[in-house]
Write a structure and sequence with these properties.
By secondary structure, this protein is α/β, with parallel strands linked by helices. It has 34 helices and 22 strands. It has a nine-stranded mixed β-sheet, sandwiched between helices. A six-stranded parallel β-sheet has the order 19-18-17-20-21-22, sandwiched between helices. It has a three-stranded antiparallel β-sheet with strand order 12-14-13. β13 and β14 form a beta hairpin. Bound molecules: pyridoxal-5'-phosphate. InterPro entries: Glycg_phsphrylas (IPR011833), Glyco_trans_35 (IPR000811), Pyridoxal_P_attach_site (IPR035090). Belongs to the glycogen phosphorylase family.
Length: about 850
């Protein structure tokens, strides 16, 4: 293909001049009439939103073509990011900020008496993820685009994303999230880009013309994967990164068979069965449910993505599959896409007729795997019988990978049968395939997501692998994009920072260091605190509207927002709130610092304990918020339906960031980074990235409490007894007794008995009781510091100034250098 000739034939058009208000107005009116089909005189805010989205999409598309032409022309190595989840947040304001045309667009809309913010509010959050893992994928795409790394994202276009949550009678109620109901103007459907994905059937082995053994996978049931593209473009002169999401469609001939028999209803039924594949996201974070549909989803998305990757590769490198590891790298976001490893083997062996050794060498050198959790219940395994039935050829390949791998292991560790058992891809006793072991063996690099996590991965989860593969395990600490989590979510603070030190931090977060010198500047710190106050007012308005709780004006906003999970210890926080409540009641004239304690987060629908914790928070809120003794000094709010858009309001409006997981359980956390970037101080354990945050901000600027990961392990090894703490600490005992005996739920006194029994009789797996006293004392230190607003401001400003390390730009540079071996593109010429 000769790209220069085509360039002449199809030059990319000149962009709209966004500095010319009249031109922008004309473009808006034209788009609304010609594309949306609505008369601007009567358009609703939603129709304005769709109009703006289409107008912007045109520009993104143009940037996409510049980027694609450039990449093909230069034959650059590409990164493919495979993730079952993405949480990109609303698109419209992001793209306006990236293109730096927000003021121009606002002005043009004002001429039509339209308000840009109201229009942005019309957009639904694409809820294609559970939590941190999905948000990380979105931050990474933004950083890849901004920094010019040639990347692609692949995922699933779930018709029903993460459920939306309401709180009814204090309890979580899940609702279907039909986010596509009114269409998605940001996506482009690629009807011509479809691939069959096969399931079931059986494998036949035969000798081909050359006498080599071949396998054929036959009698399969097929589903069609259809591509939907969403363009991610970076800030300023960034490039375009395509996020390609697969939607399942039934195969046509499949329907026809039934039609011919005159069985219309069954034909439609089969059609809906195959289309359920991309219907719904499993709403589980860190705990997994081994359902067949989930396995099918994983293979569906992996198979379509690899076919697409091979097609693109072969367009430019016909007949040279050996070049694959030189030209592409595939990053697996957790083990969810780990079937890509046997799938690539299958393609190379069965379709492209490579030898096993060649195929394995290519495969291993193409993949890299990111681990996201140490919790044993979250390490994915699949029943062999299920894999055998759905993916018989892959099961054969996995057995052979395992056989050859264990042979090698045996040579290195002769006579160590236990080691062999632990390293095997197959758990013989439970008859399951271990996806993490498969991902480690089939990848050239394995990374954890924070220093501590990466170390514990090597020491606790994969010690044998670490010895066997000396250079395979590396660390890449997570990060967040400052474009979303400061520039977009906190415009007043972004503006103050720009005034003080310029705008280079937007693409180079280390530049925030220049703020250090302002930490004690009286006028800067006054404006900084005024901005925090404004953000808290905005936050309070949302809280009042969403859950009817009136935050206490001027109080400390203490914020604990993330998925609800026992290891994240929302229960420890609410126990502390109860203790605070008791202190206030025991001593009404005490001047305990007023606090508004804010929670938000979803529980997996079947997670009994997490749902109880949500209810307890709401029941405690009900009592505390209405008690005349305490209501002016303590308020508790549970904000329903935590998602990116609510995070964008809750985080700038927080004083204190709760990051209190049991040490050794949170892989990294990214919420912790977002808060500190917005000037909240952290109260946290030495877990995940908290450790590195402390290193950066200095230990005098963070509140650390509780056991370390090593102490947790030692305490468990000694035989941890939660009763010791219950018996020794009267305040803790009073709190637990109240919760257990129904103080917060007199209509059903036993409601929280299981929660407390889980702590006392149940062994307190996450060691809340061991950390309770230290947490209480540290919360007192928080109160003391907050009374000194000047000192608090100084520490908050220093937190912002020292967040440079936690940009996802830094994470992406590290991946690019240490794992991907890809280089930055110089941005192609854009029209703006
Ligand atoms: C950042 C983020 C998360 C991750 O939060 P953690 O505190 O790191 O668990 C989850 N959900 C949303 C919506 C987020 O923005």
């Amino acid at each position: 293909m000769n790209h220069e000739i085509r360039e002449e034939l199809f030059p990319l058009s000149k962009c709209l001049d966004f500095d010319n208000v009249e031109d922008v107005k004309t473009a808006l009116v034209n788009t609304m009439i010609r594309v949306v089909g609505v008369d601007p005189q009567i358009a609703s805010p939603r129709e304005w939103y769709v109009t703006l989205a289409y107008l912007m999409r045109g520009h993104l598309s143009e940037r996409g073509m510049h980027t694609a032409r450039d990449q093909y022309g230069k034959d650059l190595k590409r990164v493919y990011y495979l993730s079952m989840e993405y949480l990109p947040g609303r698109r419209l304001m992001k793209h306006l900020l990236d293109m730096r045309i927000e003021p121009q667009m606002r002005a043009a809309l004002a001429c039509f008496k339209q308000d840009l913010d109201e229009i942005c509010e019309q957009e639904k959050d694409p809820a294609l993820g559970n939590g941190g893992l999905g948000r990380l994928a979105a931050c990474f795409l933004d950083s890849m685009a901004t920094q010019g790394y040639p990347g692609y994202g692949y995922g699933i276009r779930y018709e029903f994303g993460m459920f939306s949550q309401t709180i009814e009678n204090g309890q979580q109620v899940e609702h279907a999230e039909n986010w596509l109901q009114e269409g998605n103007p940001w996506e482009v459907v690629r009807h011509e880009i479809t691939y069959p994905v096969r399931f079931g059937g059986r494998v036949v082995h035969f000798n081909d013309e050359l006498g080599t053994e071949s396998a054929r996978w036959i009698e399969t049931t097929d589903v069609i994967a259809e591509a939907y593209d969403i363009m991610e473009t970076g800030y300023g002169d960034g490039i375009a990164v395509t996020l390609r999401l697969w939607s399942a469609r039934s195969t046509q001939d499949f329907d026809l068979r039934y039609f011919n028999e005159g069985n219309y209803i069954d034909a439609v039924k089969e059609k809906t069965v195959s289309e359920t594949l991309s219907k719904v996201l499993y709403p589980m974070d860190t705990t997994l449910m081994g359902q067949e549909l989930r396995l099918k989803q994983e293979y569906f998305f992996v198979s379509a993505s690899l076919q697409d990757i091979f097609r693109r590769f072969r367009k430019t490198h016909p007949g040279s599959l050996r070049l694959l590891p030189e030209k592409i790298v595939i990053q697996l976001n957790d083990t969810h896409p780990a079937l890509a490893i046997p799938e690539m083997m299958r393609l190379l062996l069965d379709e492209h007729k490579l030898s096993w050794d060649e195929a394995w060498c290519i495969t291993r050198n193409t993949f890299a795997y990111t681990n996201h959790t140490l919790l044993p219940e979250a390490l994915e395994t699949w029943p062999i019988s299920m894999m055998q039935a759905l993916l018989p050829r892959h099961m054969e390949i996995i057995y052979k990978i395992n056989h050859l791998f264990l042979q090698e292991v045996r040579r290195t560790f002769p006579g160590d049968g236990d080691k062999l058992k632990r390293m095997s891809l197959i758990d013989d006793e439970r008859q399951r395939v271990r996806m993490a072991n498969l991902a480690v063996v089939g990848s050239s690099r394995v990374n954890g997501v924070a220093e501590l996590h990466s170390r514990l991965l090597r020491e606790r989860v994969f010690p044998e692998f670490d010895v066997f593969y000396p250079n395979k395990f590396v660390n890449v600490t997570n990060g967040v994009t400052q474009r979303r989590w400061l520039l977009q979510s906190n415009p007043p603070l972004a503006e103050l920072i720009c005034e003080a030190i310029g705008d280079a931090w937007i693409t180079d977060l280390n530049r925030l260091r220049d703020l250090e010198s302002m930490a004690e500047d009286a006028s800067f710190s006054k404006r900084f605190m005024e901005i925090k106050d404004q953000a808290k007012k905005r936050n309070a308005a949302m809280i009042a509207q969403r859950c009817g709780v009136a935050a206490i004006p001027g109080s400390l906003f203490d914020t604990h927002i993330k998925r609800i999970h026992e290891y994240k210890r929302q229960l420890l926080n609410i126990l502390q709130v109860v203790a605070r409540y008791n202190r206030l009641r025991a001593n009404p004239s005490s001047d305990l610092l007023p606090r508004t304690v804010i929670f938000a987060g979803k529980s997996a629908p079947g997670y009994f304990m997490a749902k109880k914790i949500i209810r307890l928070i709401n029941d405690v809120a009900e009592i505390v918020n209405h008690d005349p003794i305490t209501r002016d000094s303590l308020k508790v709010a549970f904000v329903p339906n935590y998602n990116i858009s609510t995070a964008e309001i809750l985080i700038p409006g927080a004083d204190l960031s709760e990051q209190i997981s049991t040490a050794g359980t949170e892989a990294s956390g990214t919420g912790n980074m977002k808060f500190a970037l917005n000037g909240a101080l952290t109260i946290g354990t030495l877990d995940g990235a908290n450790i590195e945050i402390r290193e950066e901000v200095g230990e005098e600027n963070i509140f650390i409490f509780g056991l370390t990961a090593a102490e947790v392990a030692a305490r468990k090894a000694q035989g941890y007894n939660p009763w010791d703490y219950y018996n020794a600490d009267p305040e803790l005992r009073q709190v637990l007794d109240m919760v257990r005996d129904g103080f917060f739920c007199c209509e059903e006194p036993d409601r929280y008995r299981p929660l407390v029994e889980n702590l006392l009789q149940g062994g307190d797996a996450f060691m809340l009781l061991a950390d309770f006293r230290s947490y209480m004392e540290t919360q007192e230190n928080v109160d003391t510091l907050y009374r000194d607003q000047k000192l608090w401001a100084k520490k908050a400003i220093l937190n912002v100034a020292r967040m440079g390390k936690f940009s996802s730009d830094r994470s992406i540079h590290t991946y690019a250098q240490d794992i991907w071996d890809v280089t930055q593109m110089t941005p192609p010429p854009h029209c703006k």
